[in-house]
Amino acid sequence: MLGVYALLVFAFLLYLVDFQSREAIANQKASKGLQGDMDEKYVMVTFQAGIDYWKQILKGFEDAGETLDVSVEYRGAAKYDVKEQITVLEQVIAKKPSGIALSAIHPDALDVTIYKAIDAGIPVVLFDSNAPKSNAYTFIGTDNVKAGVTAAHELAHFINQSGQVAVVTTPHQQNQIDRLNGFQETIQKQYPDIEIVAIKDGRGDQLVSEQVVAEVITDYPNLKGVFVTEANGGVGAGKAVRKLKKDKNVKIVSFDTDKQTLDMVKEGTITATLAQGTWSMGYWALNYLFYLHHGLIQLPSDPYAHNKLPEMDTGITVVTKKNVDSYYAE
Questions:
Q1: 3-state DSSP call for residue 224?
Q2: Are 272 and 283 part of one and the same domain?
């Protein structure tokens, strides 16, 4: 009988130890906030995977992953190629991740592939470049129409609100389309003495952008300004005006804060560049995916609804010689 009593006491002590251990673990997780599982993998998918622009977005994505205690992976098409990005996205879907953050190379060419992901139960959010007719859950990034408006005001200021200007863009990418629209509409409505004489496709490539800007300067020797809707084109434009010794005459407003762009701002070749909230894009993209994966966000019942959640504007700031030094640290 004494042996049975001792066994019962031992079992009760084991229960107490187990209960206290579980409570301690639960309290530890609660103190850290909402936590996931390292078996959860969230994937970021882009294009032109080697460019500097994605680094801060990926850093935000990774920081969110560390906070939520989940795994993250980065995949990207090596080139600026729609078919290659579709192939990469299909490969990612086949591995059934917990969620996909996607920057769309084209506003509608990836829609069918995004449908495949949603149908497979994989939440998709878009960042940086939207696919507005897809059934992705939301878009996180710059309000690009507003950014184009800001660029118009900045360039108008630098050229004293008159003269010929050109635009270098990437015409089949939604963020670039929106920036161009915002810029054009603002110039046409508010600056009657400014003429947009050329809109050129820089293909998101430094060399191509350099070539097209050189051609525009040759065709329009009195050109006073260039708006470039993405970073590689901005550097290409800077190289063109430098080679043609027009860097004092042609004002450039560009996008983003890669080192080459910042160097050109600091030396005065690029007059201003628009800095996006890149870290926030990655950070909030993963947070949205995490909440969607865990069913913590109420969604419309229609699986093919567009923009199921409100879009998030991560904002822009204007970078000039006055504040450029602070952006190197990022």
A1: strand
A2: no
91: nearest Cα among 141, 43, 132, 152: 43
Residue 87 and residue 109: Cα distance in Å, rounded? 12
Q: Report in angstroms the alpha-carbon separations of 28 from 18, 23, 49, 150, 279.
A: 15, 9, 38, 46, 28
Secondary element (H or E) of residue 175: helix 174-190
Mind listing the pLDDT tens digit for each residue in 183-225?
Answer: 999 999 999 999 999 999 999 999 999 999 999 999 999 999 9
Interval 155-164: pLDDT, tens: 999 999 999 9
Q: Report which of 157, 306, 166 is spatially closest to residue 225, judged by C-alpha positions.
A: 166
Tell how strand 251-255 and strand 223-228 pair up.
Answer: parallel
Residues 327, 231: Cα–Cα separation, whole Å = 15
Q: Which domain does 232 fall in, by range?
A: 144-276
Residue-wise pLDDT tens digits, 103-140: 999 999 999 999 999 999 999 999 999 999 999 999 99
Residue whose token pair is 């994605």:
54
The CATH number for 168's domain is 3.40.50.2300
Beta-sheet pairing, 124-127 with 99-102: parallel
Tell me if 251 sits within 8 A of 271, measured CB to CB.
Answer: yes
**Same-domain status, 66 and 164:** no
